[in-house]
Specification:
This protein is mainly alpha-helical. It folds into 2 domains: about 1-35; about 45-90. It is built from 3 helices and no strands. It has helices at about 1-35, 45-65, 65-90. The N and C termini lie far apart (about 85 Å).
């Protein structure tokens, strides 16, 4: 019984270490994603717009999923293009 309990304790320790590693990797990936989306803080142009867009992307992408988010962005960009075309034709 001693070896079985030692094996179980070793497996539990291994799973704990793997969970900690996965948590650290997720935090690092989140930081990398945020740093790639957000502009550097010293850029003066469009700071409010970029930060708002980065905030929305940072919230929406993990919540609804990457494929669903890209689909929504695609449809939104098509709708904006149609809206701009109609607006430019109206004068």
């Amino acid at each position: 019984m001693s070896t079985k309990s030692q094996d179980l304790a070793a497996r539990k320790g291994l799973l704990t270490a793997q969970a900690d590693l996965a948590r650290i990797q997720l935090a690092l990936a989140w930081h990398d994603m945020r740093s790639s989306i957000l502009p550097p803080p010293d850029t003066p142009l469009f700071t409010g717009t970029h930060r708002a867009a980065a905030f929305i992307v940072g919230l929406a992408a993990p919540l609804i999923g990457r494929t669903r988010f890209t689909r929504v962005l695609r449809y939104a960009s098509i709708a904006m293009a149609i809206f701009r075309a109609v607006r430019s034709l109206r004068g």
